[in-house]
Amino acid sequence: MQLLIAAVGQRQPAWADAAYEDFAKRFPPETRLLLKAVKAEPRGSKSAEQLMAAEAKRLEEVIPKGARRVLLDEHGSRLTTAQLAQRFEFWLGDGRDVAFFIGGPDGLDPDLKKTADESLRLSDLTLPHAFVRVLLAEALYRALSLRNGHPYHRE
Fold first, then answer.
1. How does strand 33-38 pair with strand 118-121?
2. Is 97 left (phi over 0), alpha (psi -120 to 50) or beta?
3. Side by side, which strands form the sheet with 68-78?
4. pLDDT digit string (tens) for 127-140?
5. Residue 27 CB: number of other CB atoms within 10 A?
6. Residue 16: in which H helix or E strand, if any?
7. CB 103 within 8 A of CB 55
């Protein structure tokens, strides 16, 4: 199973790229974590709906066909680390790749949201996009470690 983060925005601060890569390299080959960053639509005279639609098209182009679609959204399910590890177990049993969608400054296109298998929230706070990538990579690594019996999360 492959885990893929499909995110709007190609240029991130060096610290964010380094932190993301630090977590991504820890994943085992059978559950690799990959990042597919797509170009944000240039802001200008276009409406937010037009911007999100253009970005959604780019996101669709980088995910594998048949992948489970997990949106990161402020209204998504709130999970603990242990619950995310259980979701990981389910995803592994499902046998499909899992694509996580991170929208641009205006969010994710409503039509793209309708195609989601599920949606998750990382925080009740609004987070910078660069930080979301790092936080998601760390949360997935922590959940995988817990699922594999590593005492990464103590209760």
1. unpaired
2. beta
3. 33-38, 3-8, 98-102, 68-78, 118-121
4. 888 899 999 999 99
5. 17
6. helix 14-24
7. yes
Average pLDDT, the chain: 91
pTM for this model (two decimals): 0.92
**Residue 119 corresponds to which tokens in the numbers above?**
């949606």
Type of residue at 3: L
User: 97-133: buried (b, 16+ CB within 10 Å) or exposed (e) per residue?
Assistant: bbbbbbbbebbbbeebbeebeebbebeeeebebbbbb
**Alpha carbon of 24 to those of 28, 32, 85: distances in Å?**
9, 7, 17
Here the tokens at position 138 are 């760390």
The residue type found at 86 is: Q
Q: How far apart are CA 116 and CA 155, in angstroms?
A: 32
